[in-house]
Task: inverse folding
């Protein structure tokens, strides 16, 4: 089981990026995202996506991210995504099969995260986006298998097509 | 050589997402991004990143995206990222080694793109983000080699580290 913890986002300014982080978590096989503060519309957006596209991905609003990390520590491996971290392929090879909590920061994160994490992981050593970093980490951890996952109860389902849109309406 | 064409973004509302798309293009080995309308700050942001982190990634402002596609067609394979497309792994296996132009749309794209493209490619069949979709496509096309690329003339360079920040100042 993989969960994601989003920290450090600034409400309004980071809302769209945080929404994309949540969508990546959902589409790349995580079960839940924890967020401290949040524009309530983000939760509604994700519920609407579940309704339409299936699955039971959860947005859980929390008060204190440190409490979440402490609660998970020892049961789940704590992975902190940072451009300063160890190379993703090397880190993933060292990881065991226990559950994972992936911490996705915004621009600034408190330094203590580096100590609380079991793995500080980078996706390349160039600046890009927490959205792409999360996607590549989840892809590497699951070796691409996340794209074969089925999302139960979907209202519609896409049939991959090389030249148009094919959508099956399921209910 | 890989280039990216960003279309359909709404100025202001999509500025941060477009900036992240440009940063992913740069960090995942593309040489250039073409954009129609753009907040001039995006160009400045990317110049600042090149100055600090190296390389010569270019932002080219265009008037007409169709003209860019027509100019490239035949020399570069035209790849359109869409959640309705053919599965990325299957598409990448079919691709030749010629240059590539990757079209990254925002929410709505004109239907004719599906016809203009040589490949309509999806990264999973669930909604997520054009930022993560571009990252995974570039990763698959280059088989992870983009992360070994060096960025000449960098003012600073990160040394990957499992427990803190190591930055070498180069000039």
Result:
């Amino acid at each position: 089981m993989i969960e994601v913890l989003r920290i450090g986002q600034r409400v309004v300014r980071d809302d769209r990026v945080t929404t994309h982080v949540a969508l990546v978590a959902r589409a790349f096989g995580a079960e839940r995202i924890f967020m401290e503060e949040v524009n309530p519309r983000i939760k509604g957006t994700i519920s609407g996506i579940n309704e339409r596209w299936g699955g039971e991905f959860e947005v859980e609003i929390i008060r204190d991210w440190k409490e979440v990390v402490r609660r998970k520590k020892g049961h789940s491996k704590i992975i902190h995504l940072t451009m300063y971290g160890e190379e993703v392929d090397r880190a993933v090879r060292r990881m065991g099969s226990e559950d994972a909590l992936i911490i996705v920061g915004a621009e600034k994160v408190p330094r203590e995260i580096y100590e609380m994490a079991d793995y500080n992981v980078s996706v390349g050593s160039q600046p890009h986006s927490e959205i792409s970093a999360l996607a590549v980490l989840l892809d590497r951890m699951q070796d691409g298998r996340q794209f074969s996952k089925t999302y139960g109860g979907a209202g519609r389902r896409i049939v991959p097509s090389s030249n148009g849109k094919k959508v099956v309406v399921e209910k």
In short: Residues 116 and 152 of chain B are 35 Å apart (CA to CA).
